[in-house]
Amino acid sequence: MHPNPLFRSEDRALFETLIDEIGFGMVFLTTPDGPRVAHTPLLSTEDGAVQFHLARGNALTKHLDGANTLVTINGPDGYVSPRWYANRDTVPTWDYVTLELEGRVRRMDTDGLEALLHALILRHEGRIAGEPWQAEDASEKLWRSQLAGIVGFELEVLAWRPTVKLSQKRSPEERETIMTGLESAGSPALAALMRSLVT
User: Fold this and answer.
1) pLDDT, tens only, 126-157
2) Does residue 121 have a pLDDT over 70?
3) Which residues form the domain of 59?
4) Residue 197: inside a domain
5) Per the confidence metrics, is the pTM higher than 0.85?
6) Is residue 40 part of a domain?
7) Disulfide: which of 6, 101, 148, 197 matches 71 by Cβ 3.0-4.6 Å?
8) β strands within 32-141, DSSP E
């Protein structure tokens, strides 16, 4: 998390949008075997919790229930070149959006895990054109076999720590040049966030 308070936000709607739009994050925990991270799809319950699942054999799975854990969601990011400023007597930087969630984790029961999977499928299949795939398209045998291989968890978020670093220290004219530069450098999503979030 960047220490500059200029890059903080209290906009819970923005946080929920990041979780929903990105839909993927990293779960960190220090275990008896050392620090570990798992990468997983995320689903917000929209009431202060985030759900996810891990493979039963994942190094974190046996340690998460009841643990205080950190989850991160990384949004768009991009290199900002000094050539985009009127005054080139400066240094490069990186603009980015990220959200850290800290809280206590509880293991979900099988019904909760299955509900999570159906919600994830519905959410992400709905983003793809054409007839959506449904869990019922898999055989009962395959579905049950796959379900047995994963464990569901829910993080009760106790701390929301966002960083929204979008060249806020620059003038409106410089930000416009930066947005154009980001678009031409292949970071249009970051430029779009700058346009919508920074006035």
Assistant:
1) 999 999 999 999 999 999 999 999 999 999 99
2) yes
3) 5-192
4) no
5) yes
6) yes
7) 101
8) 34-41, 43-44, 49-55, 68-80, 93-107
